[in-house]
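SAMPLE LOG
Freezer: B-3
Tube label: C17
Construct: single chain, 278 aa
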Amino acid sequence: MSHTAHIPSHRKPRRNAPKTALRAGVAGGVLSTIAVAGAAGPAQAEPVTQTIEMPTITSGLSPAVAASAQATQQVAQDLQTQAQEDAAAASAAKTAKKAKAEAVRKAEAKKKAEAAAKAKAAAKAKAEAAERASRTAARTTLSAASGSTTAASSSYASSATGSAASVIAFAQAQVGDAYVSGGTGPNSWDCSGLVQAAFRSVGVDLPRVSQAQSTAGTQVSLSNLQPGDILYWGGAGSAYHVGIYVGGGEFVGAQNSSTGVVQRPLSYDPPSGAVRVL
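STRUCTURE (predicted):
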């Protein structure tokens, strides 16, 4: 045996490396204890455990979270309401713009229609004035041609012969009869009804209405009239009145409901033209 076998060693016992365990958790909103264990002695020694109480750090957290969530929800609702209001305002503005455009369009259309109506009325007035001037000129010409003929010359007896004389005699025989629109005799007439009946008495079949009678024969000048010619007022083919020239600057016609069938000088109502059938 070694002479040192019974000499106790002066080396200190080896300590194991400190071991620390940390366990922490949150249970019920409270941080649990922290356990620290360290080997203070030989490996076989019992670990030392120290408990440290930590303060609660989540106290009052749930009400704050709820308040924050409520505030967030309110902001979201406010944003949604604002978006709806903005959309409604945009829609209203669009509708107002469309309504304004439609009102402007209607106003322009009305303005154009009024301008067209005024132009039409002006053109009509101008045409009527021109027609009156033309008739006045014709009246002056016919008055000069008929000399001093007056209503007293209504007893003028035509010197026409043959068919023309018969037509004139028939027409003069109806002087004094009534004027009735659509009348064809024997005691009431309209203008074209009298002319048609007068020519029918000599076997000449004329159209019934003034428009057609104004183109039934050969157009002749008012300065070259012969007894038996058909006089017309208005345009050829669109005449509104007819009568029969009886010679001596006079005519017979069913004028209107006030005068009936009369014999008058051409200056009484100058015609527009004449046609010759016989």
